[in-house]
Write a structure and sequence with these properties.
Layout (H helix, E strand, L loop, with lengths): L9 H11 L18 E3 L6 H4 L7 H10 L8 H13 L12 E3 L1 E2 L1 H11 L22 E2 L14 H10 L30
Antiparallel strand pairs: 1-2, 3-4
Length: 197
């Protein structure tokens, strides 16, 4: 089983594992993890097919991920079990807890560069859900979702945007995606997109 990085957001981990497994081929494959507009909920939920890739996770693995890689903080065993069942087993027995906090998935170009240089791949950090500026590089982060690629003018859905952000290359023309990335721009009109967990 692929290990989650110490500071990796659970959504990014699920995307990474499912990409390697060949389960993420188009936008609809991201349902429950990432919306068409690049928004993530506090906790993702996997579909039946996706869940099969996480069955090797032990109780300890799930506890570790929920404790260290989600913004959700549980207070007792019953809530912990509910959250684990919600994410990894698709069980949603009524909304016992408010799992509706959301934020737009965003990233730091410098962190992605460093991750790729050191580890060979990039991942979304948990802390990015709390800020619009990177807590390591003190730079404004970039929005994941872009409708039109600035480099080539090609329409991009959220799946294309995800591919481009994680690789640093435009999914269409292969030019540097990061050179054309749009930083988070916060106004009263879009403030709700950047509500932190």
């Amino acid at each position: 089983m692929i290990k989650i990085k110490k500071d990796e957001l659970i959504h990014g981990y699920l995307i990474r594992v499912l990409t390697i497994a060949g389960e993420l081929q188009q936008t609809r494959d991201l349902a429950g993890i990432l919306s068409d507009s690049g928004v993530i909920r506090e906790l993702p939920i996997l579909n039946e097919q996706q869940r099969t890739y996480f069955t090797p996770l032990t109780f300890k693995d799930i506890e570790h991920i929920l404790t260290n890689n989600t913004p959700y903080r549980y207070t007792n065993t019953e809530v912990y079990n509910y959250v684990g069942d919600y994410v990894f087993k698709g069980k949603n027995e009524g909304n016992k807890n408010n799992l509706n906090s959301r934020t737009e998935l965003r990233y730091c170009i410098e962190c992605f560069r460093e991750q790729i240089k050191i580890y060979g791949f990039a991942w979304f950090r948990l802390n990015w859900g709390y800020f619009i500026d990177c807590d390591i590089h003190d730079k404004r982060m970039c929005s994941l979702h872009t409708v039109i690629q600035k480099c080539c003018g090609k329409y991009a859905n959220i799946f294309n945007c995800l591919q481009s952000a994680l690789s640093g290359k435009c999914f269409n023309c292969q030019s540097s995606n990061w050179a054309f990335s749009s930083t988070v721009y916060l106004t009263d009109r879009n403030r709700s997109n950047y509500l932190t967990f």
